[in-house]
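Morning F.,

Quick status update on the modeling queue. The single chain you submitted on Monday has been processed. Sequence for confirmation:
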Amino acid sequence: MPEPRLGGLRRLSRRDGSVPTGQLPTSPVARNAKLATLPVAYAARRARGVGQRALGRSAREIERDIQARTAQHMFEVLGELKGCAAKFGQILALYELALPPELGAPYREALSRLHDSAPAMLPRVVTGVMAESMGEHWRARFLDFDTRACAAASVGQVHRARWHDRRPVAVKIMYPGARHAVRQDLEQLRRLAPLTEVLLPGADVRSVNDAIAACISDELDYAREARTQRTYAEAYADDPDFVVPRVVHQQGDVLISEWVDGIPMQRLIVSGAPEERNRIGALLLRFVMSSIERTGLLYTDPHPGNFRIMRDGRLGVVDYGACSPVPADFPALVGELGDALLNGGPDDLDAALRWHGFVPAGGGFDIAAFDELIDPIRELIAAESVHMTTPWLRERVLRATELRLTNVARQLTAPAELTPVGRAVLATTGVLCQLGAQGPLRDEIVSYVPELGGVVERYQRRAGEVTALRFDNSA
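Structure tokens below.
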């Protein structure tokens, strides 16, 4: 559940001054036309910039203006389309890290608002969805129901209410037309596969796209989400570190859960003390890792809007639409790749990558360049204490996404069944870097992946032997 906004939901007006109704544009022509305005408008701003520079404006000033206007336009269009378009906007929030800070700032500001600042459904639309899902007399199930949304997401919005037994509840309602709109967006994603294959010639892009489509489609199934949330609530009942709200009721396109009242994580990211950000970072990682053991599921959407810091210090976790089964061979994969990375040589790493399907069979692969590329990851696993920062992540994203033919990342493929794992790893890393988390984060991972624990023990034993040998030689 995204961060609630004080004073009610902010409304976004269109450029012509009209106010959206909260209905999703579902026509493929309409959605494609809206998306097409982004590159067209960007090209127009570039053309105007040439003229402004001729009139004496500095190139730096013009570039900042173009970036700010493009970010705002992107925010408006993606926010109104919602569905996969809004998910795309959230993903862009990671890739803006590859931009220099002075250019990335307007994108960061606009995209951080995308998750919870889009147009809300009008009250008449809300009551219509509630009646369609829960019956004509749905209001009798509540003591109070606020038709104004308190939070918004990519395919739905949240309302605050009181259930008939007086419990405060969060009522999550899907936008009318969301399923149709998402299906159209997924079809567009499939059509982009040939373009992506040009950028990543070694990858089975179509299979990965299908895996992504399956993950997104799962988020449209509120009955499935309710079952998943019940699994988590049972696994974390009375936990000293975490709060998982119980499902109160689910019917049609409505999901009702216990209300979780706490400080949004985004506020902690902006103004929290370093010690508290370190503590919450460790808890976030502990939740993602422990859920593998307790539920057999991956929590693949650790977006800051899905977390609350409770008054007693626990971490409240909401929104269970994006959870996927843990691949059967995941522990072995982590152990074998980790062992090759920390304790083996380049040949061992090359063999492990090929065995687990990250390098196409029979294909050429520059293992020396890859070994250099992931050396910072090796350091993260080897170090007892690490400091996750945005500049560190920016450098990793820049190197991995650099569009040049010799970029070794372009020689890799991505096993489709590991798509949820990749999503969870990238999203968790992104939040830890936003928090600037520092401490023994590796221990949180090792605690729940024994295979990796054995890898680290062998590495530490070998490092100790090398240190002792050097000491004896110097003596």
